[in-house]
Design a protein that fits this description.
heterodimer, A: 76% helix, B: 130 residues
Chain lengths: 212, 130
């Protein structure tokens, strides 16, 4: 286990103990993220309850095709991330690097589709403010404010996730990870899956509700 | 021999979870195209709930992970439920007590959506209740 000597922090007995501590730390952070997105979703539920007709009308302007493609992309990126973790656990470095790069690629595809969607949203005057479209009730601006806020913050999380995976892929290419030491791959995978989990909810709340 | 770091899940399980997630996505999209009345809302929210469970339990290794991790995960979501529950038990029961604010879905309790800015009368403005 000489190869793990540098990676094992001195306060831990062994690698599994270090991983358990890291996992708990990551989940503690993710719990704060649950409440962060939860507060925004609460305000969505709150205003949707007050102005459900305006929200239904506003929600029909969301681009369901873009949203559905993006959900497919993120769910698939979760699969490639899981396969990357599996490869790391088995000490197969080349598949690990490949799956990491594939995951990063799928994340970039998501952001590209999101960019195209934002472009058409802006072209249709769906940005709250003075130039907001006149086809929607004024309370529809609340929906669109929450749309920009929720999807924007989610995209920032995805950008952060891609940044983390780029670092992990770089470390992998340098030969840092082995069957004995690959905790950072597992921990960054937790973050990636969480960002995917949040999107599944945003897709349901922003795109699917009130199509009728 | 190196000790196992985290539960090694088989590739087959990952692929099955992925296929199930995609089928649920297709189901959710399909149901949103149909007019099912109140069931639309139930389905739209139940499906991401199932998807979240699959992700947390299998992809994030919580099912096979240590009990302490499960407690931390549960704590995160239980506090979310408390926050949503306390807030919604206020909004959904307004008007249940005589003299208090009417329920928002009763006609006229909130300004009807218009393309104009609503008149800011004390009785109809939601801001005045904050």
């Amino acid at each position: 286990m000489a190869e793990t000597r540098g990676a094992l922090a001195e306060q831990f007995d062994d690698m599994p103990q270090q991983l358990e501590a890291s996992t708990l730390g990551m989940w503690t952070f993710l719990a704060t993220e649950v409440l962060f997105f939860g507060a925004l979703i609460l305000s969505y539920v709150d205003y949707r309850h007050f102005y459900w007709e305006a929200f239904a009308a506003a929600g029909r302007h969301a681009k369901i095709l873009h949203g559905t493609i993006n959900t497919f992309l993120l769910l698939t990126s979760s699969l490639t991330m899981s396969l990357a973790i599996q490869a790391a656990q088995q000490g197969r470095n080349r598949p690990l690097l490949g799956f990491l790069l594939l995951t990063i690629f799928l994340g970039l595809c998501f952001l590209s589709v999101k960019g195209l969607e934002y472009k058409s949203d802006i072209d249709e005057h769906l940005v709250p403010g003075r130039h907001f479209t006149h086809e929607l009730p004024v309370q529809g601006q609340i929906y669109w404010f929450l749309y920009w806020m929720l999807t924007g913050v989610h995209s920032l999380h995805l950008v952060a996730g891609i940044g983390v995976l780029v670092v992990i892929a770089w470390l992998c290419a340098r030969g840092t990870f082995s069957q004995a030491y690959h905790n950072p791959v597992i921990i960054s995978g937790l973050y990636w899956h969480f960002v995917d989990l949040v999107w599944v909810w945003l897709y349901a709340l922003l795109y699917l509700i009130n199509r009728h | 021999m190196t000790p196992p770091s985290a539960p090694i899940v088989s590739r087959k399980t990952y692929v099955w979870v992925w296929v199930t997630l995609l089928l649920l996505l297709a189901l959710n999209w399909g149901l949103a195209q149909l007019n099912l009345g109140r069931f639309n809302l139930v389905a739209t929210l139940a499906i991401p709930f199932i998807q979240s469970l699959l992700m947390i339990l299998y992809l994030m290794h919580v099912r096979a992970g240590p009990a302490l991790t499960r407690v931390f995960v549960a704590a995160g979501f239980i506090w979310l439920i408390i926050m949503l529950d306390l807030a919604l038990s206020d909004y959904f029961t307004r008007g249940a007590v005589p003299g208090m604010m009417r329920r928002s879905w009763e006609h006229g309790a909130w300004p009807t959506p218009t393309t104009e800015f609503p008149a800011q009368t004390p009785a109809s403005s939601p801001a005045s209740h904050r």
